[in-house]
């Protein structure tokens, strides 16, 4: 019997494999479901769930991968890699699977968050940056009020997060559009977060001349170093006002301080890739290896959403620094490529998985907006979590953002080609 069935299964599996490899995910899943239904108890199919689940996971179709990986894990519960991928594909317990959008009147699906499984509190402890990158609102948008978050306010924010976070162990990122290492009391803030039971994530351009030793001694859990060009000229173009020599010296100092203090800070280089610096990736990778830091090349993109929307609407003034031609993908082409690939009923991850707090304690709609019109008009301390969420979902900018496909949506199970 097995001998008769196996060629059929092999042929069907070969077809499913070919579909997955060609990006015909919807067809592949339909064929796999059919095969599974007709041969449900066939021992030759034990690897089908795993193969389909792994392929969908690799393609970023996490929500669709979940049931396949769950079935595979039931058969191979000892496989820790499989378990980790399955965990990534599950919606965290703190997130409701669906949400009513009061603006569009639709039920929205929530996909597993790609930025991490923890609910995120983004706290911009410094209200500006020392650089003026043209792809960032600090460099391309009208200035907004500057300042440092007061430790007393930070302490109240921590206490409120502890009391009402939907996730018992949320992620705390102490930056958004500001350079956190400019804060003269950053080590104290890190210590306060630790005392309250939170780890912290920092992102820095490392163009600083003071205070690095105390920050590393405070043992932040994660330190992202944002880097772009790897020659002084190309660096200063994308990290405007930046000094590459200072950054490189500080990177070595970070390594020395981590070793000196014996702290377990996870350091990684967020390498912003432009057309003009792509050839430098191996050099940065070699430096990262030498220093024991992780290296993540990331295609540079243009922010904030307000300027991106202006650009998509044809406003050339949206890019005063002229950086868009150097992006790996023009935002208009990116938006066109996204057409049909996003789940049309997906909720935006930046809306359901994070709360964003400015340096003065006021609330922003999400981490990707900058203009005063896209703040929530209240302080984090004055609204409870439900009211903050209600204001986010009622904000009209999300509808504009979604219609332009600028939002953070889950992928649709479609045949890509
Ligand atoms: S270093 Fe970061 S925050 Fe500062 S201007 Fe550049 S992109 Fe913006
Ligand atoms: S829909 Fe757009 S503006 Fe609204 S939270 Fe998502 S990314 Fe931000």
Written account of the structure:
The chain is α/β, with parallel strands linked by helices and 417 residues long. It folds into 2 domains: 2-89, Serine Threonine Protein Phosphatase 5, Tetratricopeptide repeat (Alpha Horseshoe), CATH 1.25.40; 120-403, Alpha-Beta Barrel (TIM Barrel). It is 42% helix and 12% strand. The chain contains 17 helices and 11 strands. It has helices at residues 2-21, 25-38, 48-58, 62-75, 80-89, 137-140, 151-164, 186-195, 212-217, 232-238, 244-261, 281-291, 305-312, 331-338, 349-352, 385-394, 396-403, and strands at residues 98-100, 107-109, 120-123, 171-173, 200-204, 222-227, 266-273, 294-299, 354-357, 362-364, 375-379. It has a 9-stranded mixed β-sheet with strand order 8-7-6-5-4-3-9-10-11. Strands 1-2 form a two-stranded antiparallel ribbon. Helix 2 packs antiparallel against helix 3 (48-58). The chain is globular and about 70 Å long. One iron/sulfur cluster (SF4) is lined by residues 305, 348, 350-351, 365-366, 368-369, 397-398, 401-402, 406-408. One iron/sulfur cluster binds at residues 305, 348, 350-351, 365-366, 368-369, 397-398, 401-402, 406-408.
């Amino acid at each position: 019997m097995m001998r008769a069935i196996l060629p059929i299964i092999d042929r069907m599996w070969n077809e499913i494999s070919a579909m997955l490899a060609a990006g015909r995910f919807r067809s592949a899943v339909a064929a796999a479901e059919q095969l599974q239904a007709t041969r449900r108890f066939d021992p030759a199919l034990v690897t089908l769930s795993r193969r389909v689940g792994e392929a969908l996971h690799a393609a970023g179709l996490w929500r669709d991968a979940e049931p396949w990986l769950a079935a595979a894990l039931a058969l191979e519960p000892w496989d820790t890699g499989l378990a980790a991928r399955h965990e990534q594909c599950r919606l965290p317990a703190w997130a409701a699977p669906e949400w009513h959008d009061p603006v569009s009147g639709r039920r929205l699906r929530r996909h597993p968050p790609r930025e991490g499984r923890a609910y995120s509190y983004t706290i911009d402890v410094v209200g500006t940056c020392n650089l003026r990158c043209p792809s960032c609102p600090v460099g391309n948008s009208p200035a907004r009020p500057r300042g440092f978050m007061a430790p007393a306010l930070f302490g109240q924010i921590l206490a409120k997060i502890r009391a009402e976070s939907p996730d018992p162990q949320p992620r705390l990122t102490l930056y958004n559009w500001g350079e956190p290492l400019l804060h003269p009391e950053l080590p104290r803030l890190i210590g306060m977060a630790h005392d309250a039971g939170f780890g912290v994530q920092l992102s820095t351009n490392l163009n600083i001349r003071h205070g690095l030793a105390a920050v590393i001694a405070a043992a932040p859990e994660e330190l992202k170093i944002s880097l772009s060009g790897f020659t002084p000229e190309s660096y200063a173009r994308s990290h405007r006002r930046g000094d590459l020599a200072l950054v490189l010296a500080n990177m070595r100092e970070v390594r020395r301080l981590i070793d000196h203090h014996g702290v377990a800070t996870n350091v990684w280089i967020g390498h912003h890739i432009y057309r003009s610096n792509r050839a430098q990736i191996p050099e940065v990778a070699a430096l990262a290896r030498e220093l024991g830091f992780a290296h993540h090349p990331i295609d540079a993109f243009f922010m904030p959403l307000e300027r991106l929307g202006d650009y998509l609407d044809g406003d050339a003034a949206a890019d005063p620094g002229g950086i868009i031609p150097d992006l790996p993908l023009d935002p208009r082409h990116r938006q066109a490529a996204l057409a049909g690939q996003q789940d049309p009923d997906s909720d935006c991850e930046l809306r359901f998985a994070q709360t964003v707090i400015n340096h003065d304690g006021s609330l922003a709609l999400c981490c990707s907006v900058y203009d005063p019109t896209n703040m929530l008009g209240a302080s984090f301390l004055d609204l409870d979590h439900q009211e903050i969420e209600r204001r986010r979902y009622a904000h009209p900018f999300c509808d504009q953002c979604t219609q332009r496909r600028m939002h953070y949506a889950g992928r649709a199970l479609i045949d890509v080609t």
